[in-house]
Amino acid sequence: MASLVLHNAKLILRDGLQSGGVLIRDGLIDHVFAEDKTPTGLSRSESIELQGNYLSSGLIDIHIHGSAGIDVQATDEDGIAKLSEFLLSEGVTAYFPTLVPTDDSGYSAALATINSYVERQNQHKSATPFGARILGVHFEGPFVNEHRCGALRTRYFRTYDGNPRSIEQFTGDRSELGRLMTLAPETERGLDLIRDLQARGVRAFVGHSQANPKMLDDSAKAGARHITHFPNALDPLHHRKPGAVAWGLVQTEVTLDFIADFHHVDPLMLQLIYQSKGADRIALISDAIMPAGLGDGEFEVWDEKIVVRDGRTSLAESPETLAGSVITLRQAVKNITDIGVPINEAVRMAAWIPARVSGAQSEYGSIEQGKKADLVGFDGDFAVRLVVVHGSVAFSKID
User: I need a labelling partner for 108 at 20 to 30 A (CA). Which of 239, 358, 386, 393 fits?
Assistant: First the structure.
């Protein structure tokens, strides 16, 4: 039975901070202990002293298009492996590759690559982890509103015909990876689409939408109770036309995610959202695209020229239109702590809430007995010092 003890850490748990550590057995968290209860009898190779650094559950990015020069829809298995390794170095241990609207062949090719990579990853028997785990696929569209398209290509948008066979490409098989879809409920037969997706195991999120509160009430009853990259790609808040922004802020059963790069949403607005919703109803996402990690420049993404300047991404032909982000989830966590969110709540928003809204909470997202031992150690400046995936050390800068 393979064992590993991580100790002398500031544990970030779901309900707060605790000094201590974790015992890992066979890739799972066996138990959590206070520092004065550190297990004994293990060899030096089976014990890592965290030197008082933070230890959290691995971060989970439920909305990411790429990074490190890789676009998940324009790469091969080696490219997905490169992306997965980059994410591990940033403390992201699991993610949902996110696909923008394309044609049938484009979806088929991307899904084939992702599925093949996951099979290769699952067959990997080395003690060294293969990279951040893919937990599922997130479809951003194609059933969205052309008037709130953002950087998505409208020529690939679709409407639902009410026949479940027409969405088989998105629903897949229940034995496959988890699936998420961002959609606009006001599109033709949008409520039927939500119901049919939910019945086939696909979690429906609201986004790129102009739905009014009544339609949103109906979509929530149908099963869509999460809003994508709030409040971007929604009608702006207006005191006589509140729309999805006001609805999302006041509905206690609704969760949302946002991009904390300080470009997509002003820091003051992030504070408003946080004070309105609380950490238990907010997930952090990166919405990162291929240039993330490459610095400023001009790049070709989704058949469009994208300009990155000082961390802001925009379409070259429409500079006012943002086009994804170039942050990582780790940077998003740091950013929201800089505006006053406690560190344990910031990590909850980047691990536990993404796991919960994506349906992966039984195995991922928190430091608890029986969960997968996906863990990240980082210092007070949020520099990653240690990454453990399924109980094996993937990355270490611990002396």
Answer: 358
Instruction: Spell out the residues 6+ positions from residue 107 whose beta carbon is closer than 8 angstroms to its own.
Output: 99, 169, 170
Are the beta carbons of 354 and 138 closer than 8 angstroms? Answer: no
With cut-offs at 50, 70 and 90, classify the pLDDT of residue 173: confident
The domain that holds 280 is classified in CATH as 3.20.20.140
Same domain flag for 177 and 303: yes
pLDDT digits (tens, 9 = 90+) for 311-337: 898 888 887 888 789 999 999 999 999
Long-range contacts, stretch 161-166, CB < 8 angstroms, 24+ apart: 161/189, 162/189, 162/192, 164/196, 164/200
Count the Cβ atoms, other than its own, within 10 Å of residue 188. Answer: 12
Asked if residue 126 has pLDDT above 70, the reply is no
Backbone angles phi, psi at 249, to 5 degrees: -70, -30
Q: Are residues 11 and 156 in the same domain?
A: no
Contact 183, 141 (CB under 8 A): yes
CA distances from 257 to 112, 190, 245 (A): 28, 21, 12
- Residue percentage of the chain with pLDDT more than 70: 97
pTM: 0.96
Q: 141 with 284, same domain? A: yes
* H/E run at residue 105: helix 104-122
Q: How confident is the model at residue 129 (pLDDT cuts 50, 70, 90)?
A: low
Of residues 126 and 187, more confidence is placed in 187
Residues 142 and 266 reside in one and the same domain: yes
pLDDT in tens, 366-378: 999 999 999 999 9
Residues 201 and 214 reside in one and the same domain: yes
H or E segment at 333? Answer: helix 329-338
**Strand 92-99 with 178-183, pairing:** unpaired
What is the β-pairing status of strands 297-301 and 3-13?
Answer: unpaired
Q: Counting every residue, how long is the chain?
A: 399
Looking at the structure, tell me whether residues 47 and 125 fall in a common domain.
no
Range of the structural domain that residue 69 is part of: 59-363
* The total number of structural domains that make up the chain: 2
